[in-house]
Write a structure and sequence with these properties.
The chain has helices at about 20-25, 40-45, 55-65, 110-125, 180-190, 215-220, 230-240, and strands at about 1-5, 35-40, 50, 70, 75-85, 85-90, 100-105, 130-140, 145-155, 160, 175-180, 200-205. It has about 240 residues and is α+β, with helices and mostly antiparallel strands.
């Protein structure tokens, strides 16, 4: 598998067109490539930015943007939030590389990924192509951030191992591989998190990918009560219901 980071100009909040850059990288694409785009420039392209203000204003913005937000004793809310079926800090709102703006998540990351997928396929005549929109998140009980997919289109996100056998003949009952988040984590590691100016990457030669034109988001998402983290997240979900 090869990850090719794409150096770009600086995208300026609150709104900047990213399609000229997509046109440039499109000329380099091959069949079965996967284009990875950081959510930050997607949001800037959509104008989904807010002029930065006070911490109190930011807290109100986090509360309005989060699908669920944890509340701890004393009535205080934390940065721990759930948005778009993803556990993410501050509802995905970020001020790094914002130049005085808070950059929110794209309005609909899945829809945005499909829009870029359609544009690149139509413009360059590609038949098999994937697009992934990424953000950074933290794994429980681990230090440091890593990439995760918040939107994607063009391929199946999960490889199913159920009913296959291991090297000793034992049949898999539950096992699946999360391909799309693996792509996101690897690409973000190469793209960087600070001033690299590589908000896009082309991932080539990903094993086990099955390309498709239909929406496959439901294949990735785990029903809330079947999630192994549900016992921990349950108070967060229930607090939302009470409100």
């Amino acid at each position: 598998m090869e990850i090719i980071p794409i150096k770009t100009r600086i995208f300026l909040p609150p709104k900047d067109d990213i399609f000229p850059t997509l046109r440039k990288i499109g000329k380099k694409l091959r069949e079965k490539d996967i284009v990875v785009i950081t959510s930050k420039i997607v949001s800037i392209g959509e104008g989904n930015c807010v002029a930065a203000g006070s911490e109190k204003e930011k807290q109100k913005l986090i509360e309005s943007e989060a699908d669920y937000l944890a509340r701890f004793s004393g009535g205080k809310r934390s940065m721990f939030s759930i948005k778009g079926s993803t556990v993410v800090g501050s509802a995905g709102i970020d001020d790094s590389n914002g130049n005085g703006y808070w950059i929110l998540w794209p309005k609909d990351p899945m829809k945005s990924a499909k829009k870029f997928w359609k544009f690149l396929r139509r413009t360059y005549g590609l038949k098999q192509l994937g697009v992934v929109i990424t953000d950074s998140y933290c794994v429980p009980m681990r230090s440091g951030a890593m990439g995760i997919a918040i939107g994607f289109h063009g391929f199946h996100p999960v490889e199913n191992h159920i009913d296959q056998r291991d090297i000793f003949g034992r049949k898999f009952v539950f096992s699946k591989s999360n391909i799309v988040d693996g792509i996101a984590a690897a690409a973000v590691l190469v793209m960087g998190e600070t001033d690299e100016r590589t908000p896009l990457a082309v991932v080539r030669g990903v094993p086990h990918v099955r390309f498709t034109g239909r929406s496959t988001a439901k294949e990735l998402l785990m029903p809330i009560k079947q999630d192994i983290y549900y016992p921990i997240l349950k108070p967060v979900y229930e607090h939302k219901k009470k409100n």
